[in-house]
Amino acid sequence: QFDQDQKRSLLSNLYHDDSRVNIRDAEVENATLELRRRIQKAEYEKHRRMEVDDDIKQLKGKKKAKDVAPSNQDGLDDDESNNPVDDDPECTTALKASDIRKMSVDELLSLDGSNNQTEGTVSSLEGGRLRKWLAEIDGHKSMEYLSYARSFETQGFHSIKDLGLLDEEDVDRALTEIGVNKFAHRARLRKAILRLSHVP
Fold this sequence. Notes:
This is SAM domain-containing protein. By secondary structure, the chain is an all-alpha fold.
């Protein structure tokens, strides 16, 4: 009788330990999913803020370019009137820490002192829109689609307009060159790009 009772108690303890382990595994998995969701949400919000900031910078750049152009009509050749970069306060002040935190990795790597040129602003604006578009293809896996942004840019697709010019054959060829190998990613990207070409 004693042996049977001991076996039962050992088996019940074992069952209890297994259920505790299963509960713990579920808690860890839920915590991991929540962390992943928060990271994706933070990345998405960061890219949205960057796009808004880029829009504002582009508008300021256009306004300053208009202000500088009339002052150059005098025909004077002094250095101050020909160098609008010196008049731009953004060129002479250091970047704020909050601005640096808002930048993407690509923008941080491209900081070489020439980031205040109009072309740079326009391309970063278009790059921000491209990244936002990639993130919105699948909200649950936005980081996976954002990882293709650099590949799109290296293949010459710097804006959504560039992608909208592709026909069906070009889309398949471009996705192959970019390196989209996952079937689901390829199908969703193909569908989204073809939708761009039909948007007026």
